[in-house]
Amino acid sequence: DQQVKQNSPSLSVQEGRISILNCDYTNSMFDYFLWYKKYPAEGPTFLISISSIKDKNEDGRFTVFLNKSAKHLSLHIVPSQPGDSAVYFCAASPSGNTPLVFGKGTRLSVIA
Amino acid sequence: DSGVTQTPKHLITATGQRVTLRCSPRSGDLSVYWYQQSLDQGLQFLIQYYNGEERAKGNILERFSAQQFPDLHSELNLSSLELGDSALYFCASRAGQGAYGYTFGSGTRLTVV
Questions:
Q1: pLDDT, tens digit, for every residue of B12-40?
Q2: Chain A residues closer than 8 Å to B56 by CB
Q3: Which residues in chain B are contacts of A101 at CB distance < 8 A?
Q4: Looking at the complex, does the CB of residue A102 fall below 8 Å from at least one CB of chain B?
Q5: Is B59 on the interface with A (CB under 8 A)?
Q6: What is the pLDDT of residues A61-93, one digit of tens each?
Q7: Residue B1's pLDDT band (boundaries 50, 70, 90)?
Q8: Residue B67 vs residues B75, B89, B109: alpha-carbon distances, Å
Q9: A5-9, A52-56, B97-101: lowest mean pLDDT where?
Q10: How far apart are CA B32 and CA B48, in angstroms?
């Protein structure tokens, strides 16, 4: 039973355009959500997070939106750059004491 | 360099064998987490240690075991290896139980032949 789902295995976007990566979750106890980025031959690195008391968090070109009623979050990257090409993982946790639950990832390719 | 060190980076071994993967957490981090990433799978949680004690178990097979030592480094032991155990194994650490974000190591790629 997958509690965090990233239904798009891959996404291609032109440089300069917006990239939108989606994530759905089933566990209503999740109250903190994170996005990680992973390049080949490296471990995942933290990108941005949001707690359930907010519906939006912004950090430079990256914005995460949370829709609790729909159990859906999305990561927007504007403008997309070739260096953003990586696998993006959505993760969630019900509290700081419990391990993160990850989705399967979405491979983003930004084409110059 | 994330500060989390995993060794070895690559490991090739035969079915039925036993291997040990090692992880040194970031300085000051007490929690260590092990995750497995198989082909087309996300990061599957295996086990968590906090300051030497096991705190949570995920989808870890009985053939797998782990421990965290007094110096806080951790080892993941995989025995009676099968072809399906081939995967990337990641270790992550975080400062305390109240912190949400992990810092990951670069992983150990295990190939069972």
A1: 999 999 999 999 999 989 999 999 999 87
A2: 98-99
A3: 45
A4: yes
A5: no
A6: 999 999 999 999 999 999 999 999 999 999 999
A7: confident
A8: 6, 15, 20
A9: B97-101
A10: 6
Q: What Å distances lie between residue A65 and A19, A50, A55, CA to CA? A: 13, 8, 6
A86: contact with B, CB 8 A cutoff: no
Q: How confident is the model at residue B101 (pLDDT cuts 50, 70, 90)?
A: confident
Put simply, the answer to whether B101 touches A41 (Cβ < 8 Å) is no
pLDDT digits (tens, 9 = 90+) for A28-44: 999 999 999 999 989 99
Q: Residues 6 or more apart from B4 whose CB is under 8 A from it?
A: A43, B23, B24, B25, B26, B91, B92, B93, B103, B104, B105
Q: H or E stretch including B52?
A: none
CB-CB under 8 Å, A105 with B45:
no
Closest CA of chain B from A96, distance in Å? 4
Dihedral angle computed from the Cα positions of residues A111, B88, A24 and A108, in that order, rounded to the nearest 10 degrees:
0
Question: Taking a C-beta distance cutoff of 8 angstroms, is the pair A50, A57 a contact?
Answer: yes
Please indicate whether, in this complex, the C-beta atoms of A43 and B90 are within 8 angstroms of each other.
yes
- The stretch B78-88 carries a mean pLDDT of 96
Over B67-92, what HEC string results? EECCCCCEEEEECCCCHHHCEEEEEE
The two tokens of residue A1 are: 């039973």
Calculate the average pLDDT of chain B: 93
Rounded Cα distance between A52 and A37, Å, is 21
From B37's Cα to the closest Cα of chain A, the distance in A is 9
